[in-house]
Target: Sarcosine oxidase subunit delta
Amino acid sequence: MRIACPFCGPRGSEEYTYLGDATVRRPEGDAPSEAWFAYVYLRDNPAGRHRELWYHGAGCRSWLVVERDMRSHDILSVAPARDMALARGRAA
Model:
């Protein structure tokens, strides 16, 4: 699988480290234990489009949000995680 880093261009997935689901939100510190349990242990296994966090450790060392189709592994978009976080902050 090749990921098109916005800073380095297309690179093989061996240059990256997969972190996980980019849509999971950390609960507030005073959230009930059930919220923390769900955050740590309960994850969906989607079929179709999904956003993931990847770290380009062997390249520019940037965190990226990769949207890909979980059935075909086709990569649909790649964006710096910082840009996605800033956009989410403006939407909140």
User: Anything to note?
Assistant: Residues 2-91 form a domain with the Folate-binding fold fold (CATH 3.30.2270.10). The chain has a mean pLDDT of 90.
